[in-house]
Amino acid sequence: MDFQVVVLAGGFSKSLVPLVSKEVPKALLPVANRPVLSYVLDLLEQKSLKDLIVVVEGETAALSVSAWISSTYIDRLHVEVAAVPEDVGTAGAIRAIHHRLTAKDILVVSGDLVCDVPPGAVAAAHRRHDAVVTALLCSAPVSGPSDSGSSGAKDKAKKPGRYNIIALDPTKQFLLHIAAGAEVEKDIRVQKSILRAVSQMEIRSDLMDAHVYAFKRSILQDVLNQKETYQSLRRDVLPYLVRSQLRSELLSNGVQSEENGNGKDAMQNVKILPSQLLANASTPSFHELYPLGPDGSASMTRKTHKCCVYIANKSKYCARLNSIQAFSDINRDVVGDANHLSGYSFSVHNNVIHPSAVLGSKTTVGPQCVLGDGSQMGDKCSVKKSVIGRHCRIGSNVKVVSSVIMDHVTIGDGCSIQGSVICSNVQLQDRVILKDCQVGAGFVVTAGSEYKAESLAKKEKL
Amino acid sequence: MDPRRVPRTVSDPKVRQVGFFAPPDRSQSGPPAPISSSPPVSEISPSGNSLSPVMIPPPRNLSSDMSRHFPPAPISPLRRGRGAADSSIPVGSYNPSEFISPTATADFSEDALSPGWSRKGNSAKFASSLPTGGIGMVKQNKVPASGLTMVSTVRMPKAIKEKERVSMEEVQMEQQPGDSKPLKEKTTKAERRALQEAQRAAKAAAKPEGSKAQAAASGVNAVNASPGKVPKATPSKKDSSSVVASEKRGGDRQPDKDRKKDVPHPRMQFDDENRVEKAKKRSVVRQTEARSRVELFRHLPQYEHGTRLPDLESRFFQLDPIHPAVYKVGVRYLSGDISGGNSRCIAMLQAFQESIRDYSTPPEKSLIRDLTTKINGYVSFLIECRPLSISMGNAIRFLKTRINKLVLNLSESEAKSSILLDIDRFINEKIILADKVIVKHAVTKIRDGDVLLTYGSSSVVEMILLHAHELGKQFRVVIVDSRPKLEGQMLLRRLVRQGISCTYTHINAVSYVMLEVTRVLLGASSVLSNGTVYSRVGTASVAMVAHQFHVPVLICCEAYKFHERVQLDSICSNELGDPDAIARVSGRTEINYLEGWTNSENLQLLNLIYDVTPSDYVSMIITDYGMIPPTSVPVIVREYQREHLWI
């Protein structure tokens, strides 16, 4: 279908310290015991998109990601892993691989996306309107699932910045304004010209930018070449395209002027052209109406381009793993409400216990839990709404609630872990009590210690 | 599939043979003559091939008939093939698949009706569509020989129904190859053994999976056909299938996926459940039939609105055989972004051009055949998005003729450029130039002081009005519009922009507004050979009112939209729009009396797209061949057709 897919897998995201480390880049963080990148790749593979470019920040991260991809998807997908320098931003990443992009349109997907929205829908909306950019928007979780447990209410306050202010036209197909929540101060500035053209604007804050964009390749490359300071697709390129949609300088040269501007060229000629016939027949969006002026006099022809959105159905799950809170939320949802994403078949008790896992006597594993292969649990343990990785050794009388425990973790007797994330190779000695903590890889928590809402990690030797 | 196969389980093969030719009075009409199947086919083919001027809709009671003849089950594969060939007889001449090359048709199942198919008159060809079905069965059952018995039953209801239309003598002839004696003796020991083993295996398979209708059916079938019980029927049935098998080796085999590219019959009767089932299986766009449909219009496709677009969108990347340009056009049809006969036709042709530009002939295939198959696939995709307009049907027919008429020794690039040129020429001559000529003619009919009334938004009428305005004629325009599309508003906008003085009203007020009107200018989707004008719904009322007020009605229509079909009402061929569109009132959300109407059993909404204006109401038809009375349409159709084929 003449689409190329670029997966931006990121590198060692600072916002996820201490979860990420040299060994585990962001893309390989486990969600329900599978790297988060696998959710995107599986989604694409399911939609028979088999040729992918995965862009990873940093050489070491790229190595580990490509090693993982080649071992997992060896004959299922054709993946190119490209390493770009760190801190170039998403726009920089695209700039760095621009020579590999050849197709007419490019689908840029964030590697930390966990969703079941078909990417084809975005691409189709993009093609249908001949848009320059099409963004996937999903409804942001309004107040979180009610069963979010103890980790819920308090942390909600921490992340107001995740929401965007998004303005749409009445048909909900075109993007008129976008601003990330963090940039929104007291008021938002909406361009008068756009408002005049559309005459009606819907401003919403309940939508989330899922970071799945379809770009017209030539346009994207033009923008990236012209605006060298642009760092991020989401924060710089997309708002720029949206801002300039009614006075586009992009289409003045190149092939696109033919495609997008044909309606307007035809207006100038008195001759009957098929394109005019087509333009007259199709329902005009405001883009076509605007150049004609408010009173219908075609005083001047203006170049316009379209920025479209595809709004995912409310029933679809969509989340980005871009914060620690999101990490535990996604882990909870993937084994809970959105468990069709995880790819596991859940047992009658609504949990997954690998056959090779060993449970002691009187140990209960509640619903919405995943227990990885080779893990051992002692007696009288209780696990609720948690994910436990592979080859963990858990002693007796351990309580694990709403937590994520990665691989090769050793937990001593009598520990209580609540709402926490424990990375690989961590050792918790006996009677440790953790509440809402993050424990970095390889950390050793001494016996009897008690932490609350802290981030524990080895000192980085950078 | 399942409901079809289940009744068969109770029937004894011997009984089946009788019951299959069901009405006993008819089956005794003549002694079976030992003739092979091909002669009747060739006899039929001319009638199927020639473009019959009169379209007779198939009898409505077919489905009930069918259910009556349903239980008697399997037919020999040859019979099934015959069904495919015969079904082209009642088809109207409006059939985009008419110029399909033999390769394309070889894999056609009975819905895709092609005269090319019957012209072949070759039973091997008919049989060649079987292997796909047969092989599929074999795979499911994992029993090769039981597949043979299954094959004969795969599509029997259709064949049974088709039989109704064929004269009984032919049926009797048909029957011959199935159970004539010489064939019976062909059974070899190995074959018998294979069959027996297959039956055993099928029986074993049937036991554990009783719930699975597939397995169950094959199992029972095997029981029925077991030699002890019915010694005679088994070998004969098997013979026929073995004959088919040998014939299929000779015929060219089609890959299974090509079956998907079959063009569904453009005028398929959607009240026939079996056909709908079948079409659904084949379709690219997943469709949900709307539940409450108006009784009289059940034969027209109507889908649950709003389900098709998201589905099509979500499978964007899985539709590999569909070229992106074609896909885009299809989605825009589906979402209603493009409407209007001319623009839909141009958009489609341009998409085809683009796809042909990107086309390269696969090795060991000929461009003519492969490209035709490709185009067929695109066309069926477009039909699923929205039923073709007559203008599009004619354009497709033109394109296929051009492809088929290509000189064989052309290189690929030459052939492609010649087709591209042909399409360009079609657009330019048949649409653009035709419009110019129509404008030139029509402008002479506009005098100073005229009040012109138009309905909806027709591209030609718009050009006429604009051109007359440019010429400095003093006239006024009344634009009559109707819900739910309100297309007239766009026309109004463009006319007002040019400084033409306009009146805008809705169709409710047409009788009042008609008093001052001096001419009515209307566009048309098609003009049929009895002078009937097929156009946007509401045109007929406007024309009728104008007729009553003795206002001349001028229909402006390009000749490429003419069609030799005859239609007397708007029922037998029409298109249904989204019923929600008329249930809603745009801009007034508080008017929601019909909210949730789909849940109501005894409420059906009818949103017709087209209607038919009888020729009595039409004073004149303005085409690119001049201004003609409606009675002269057949002449144009005849002349145009000839020219069109022999360019």
Automatic annotation (TrEMBL), chain A:
Q: Which GO terms describe its cellular component?
A: cytosol; eukaryotic translation initiation factor 2B complex
Show where the EIF2B subunit epsilon/gamma LbH domain sits: 354-447
Picking any one GO biological process from the record gives: cytoplasmic translational initiation
Where in the cell does this protein reside? Cytoplasm, Cytosol
Q: Which UniProt keywords apply?
A: Cytoplasm, Initiation factor, Protein biosynthesis
Q: Which GO terms describe its molecular function?
A: guanyl-nucleotide exchange factor activity; translation initiation factor activity
- According to the entry, every stretch annotated as the Nucleotidyl transferase domain falls at 5-151
Where is this protein chiefly located? cytoplasm
What InterPro entries does this protein map onto?
A: eIF2B_gamma, LbH_EIF2B3/5, NTP_transferase_dom, Nucleotide-diphossugar_trans
Similarity field: Belongs to the eIF-2B gamma/epsilon subunits family.
The UniProt subunit note reads as follows: Component of the translation initiation factor 2B (eIF2B) complex which is a heterodecamer of two sets of five different subunits: alpha, beta, gamma, delta and epsilon. Subunits alpha, beta and delta comprise a regulatory subcomplex and subunits epsilon and gamma comprise a catalytic subcomplex. Within the complex, the hexameric regulatory complex resides at the center, with the two heterodimeric catalytic subcomplexes bound on opposite sides.
Q: What does this protein do?
A: Acts as a component of the translation initiation factor 2B (eIF2B) complex, which catalyzes the exchange of GDP for GTP on the eukaryotic initiation factor 2 (eIF2) complex gamma subunit. Its guanine nucleotide exchange factor activity is repressed when bound to eIF2 complex phosphorylated on the alpha subunit, thereby limiting the amount of methionyl-initiator methionine tRNA available to the ribosome and consequently global translation is repressed.
Instruction: Give the matching PANTHER family.
Output: TRANSLATION INITIATION FACTOR EIF-2B SUBUNIT GAMMA (PTHR45989)
Q: What is this protein called?
A: Translation initiation factor eIF2B subunit gamma
Task: Specify the species.
Answer: Fraxinus pennsylvanica
> What is this organism's lineage?
Eukaryota, Viridiplantae, Streptophyta, Embryophyta, Tracheophyta
Automatic annotation (TrEMBL), chain B:
Where it sits in the cell: the answer is: Cytoplasm, Cytosol
Span list, region Disordered: 1-96, 159-284
Query: GO cellular component annotations, sorted alphabetically?
Result: cytosol
Alphabetical keyword list:
Cytoplasm, Initiation factor, Protein biosynthesis
Q: Report a single Gene Ontology molecular function.
A: translation initiation factor activity
PANTHER family xref list:
TRANSLATION INITIATION FACTOR EIF-2B, TRANSLATION INITIATION FACTOR EIF-2B SUBUNIT DELTA
Its subunit composition reads: Component of the translation initiation factor 2B (eIF2B) complex which is a heterodecamer of two sets of five different subunits: alpha, beta, gamma, delta and epsilon. Subunits alpha, beta and delta comprise a regulatory subcomplex and subunits epsilon and gamma comprise a catalytic subcomplex. Within the complex, the hexameric regulatory complex resides at the center, with the two heterodimeric catalytic subcomplexes bound on opposite sides.
What protein name is recorded for this chain?
Translation initiation factor eIF2B subunit delta
